[in-house]
């Protein structure tokens, strides 16, 4: 029952964000970058992981450009080739060779020389499909980010996870599962939510 509700919310939210016009998406991307620039965590970061948007996700390119301009080393997730359901993070620059993964999402071509240990990241900006007023996040359903963030959820060391979403992806209450990792911070173009 709960999985059916989560599936329905995913469909609704994906449709909601895909229905945004190109102008709305571009404006939201710029506003997101401005909101993130206010984050104390980003002002002190040296290494951050972002993602390239797909399927109507909030475009992170302006934020990536900001990081490049401020000498913040930027990394993107790559689906782990041997550890199913896990992510690696690899350096991303304007010259990075890109390929499409199994989900038809662009990611850097895997090169062991550019991989960073996850615990060495300062921030992992995390995509999501929906979030609620208590900081619960609903992802695409593959569990990649939940598995990646689990070791650091209760720790004082390791990367800080910051969720990124359009404001229209907010709902009052999400059905959550034991493996869901709640966010302490979620940034939308309109607000910075903290718990």
Automatic annotation (TrEMBL):
One of its GO terms (biological process) is tetrahydrofolate interconversion. It comes from the Bacteria. It is an enzyme of class 6 (ligase). Keywords: ATP-binding, Ligase, Magnesium, Metal-binding, Nucleotide-binding. Substrate binds at residues 52, 57. ATP binds at residues 137-145. It catalyses: (6S)-5-formyl-5,6,7,8-tetrahydrofolate + ATP = (6R)-5,10-methenyltetrahydrofolate + ADP + phosphate. InterPro entries: FTHF_cligase (IPR002698), FTHF_cligase-like_sf (IPR024185), NagB/RpiA_transferase-like (IPR037171). Gene3D superfamilies: NagB/RpiA/CoA transferase-like. The keyword NAD does not apply. Its cofactor is Mg(2+). GO terms for molecular function: 5-formyltetrahydrofolate cyclo-ligase activity; ATP binding; metal ion binding. Its EC number is 6.3.3.2. Signal peptide: none annotated. Belongs to the 5-formyltetrahydrofolate cyclo-ligase family. This is 5-formyltetrahydrofolate cyclo-ligase. It comes from Vibrio gelatinilyticus.
């Amino acid at each position: 029952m709960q999985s059916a509700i989560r599936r329905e919310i995913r469909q609704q939210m994906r449709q909601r964000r895909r229905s945004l016009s190109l102008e709305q998406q571009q404006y939201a991307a710029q506003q997101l970058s401005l909101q993130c620039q206010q984050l104390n965590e980003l002002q002190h970061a040296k290494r951050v992981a972002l993602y390239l948007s797909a399927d109507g996700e909030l475009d992170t390119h302006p934020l990536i450009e900001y990081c490049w301009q401020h000498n913040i080393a930027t990394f993107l997730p790559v689906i782990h080739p041997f550890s199913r359901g896990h992510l690696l993070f690899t350096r991303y620059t304007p010259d990075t060779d890109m390929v499409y993964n199994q989900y038809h999402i662009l990611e850097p071509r895997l090169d062991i020389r550019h991989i960073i240990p996850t615990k060495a990241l300062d921030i992992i900006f995390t995509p999501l499909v929906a979030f609620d007023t208590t900081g619960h996040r609903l992802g695409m359903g593959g569990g990649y980010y939940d598995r990646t963030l689990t070791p650091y959820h209760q720790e004082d060391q390791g990367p800080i996870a910051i969720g990124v979403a359009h404001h229209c992806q907010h709902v009052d209450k999400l059905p959550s599962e034991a493996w869901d990792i709640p966010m302490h911070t979620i940034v939308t173009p309109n607000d910075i939510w903290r718990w």
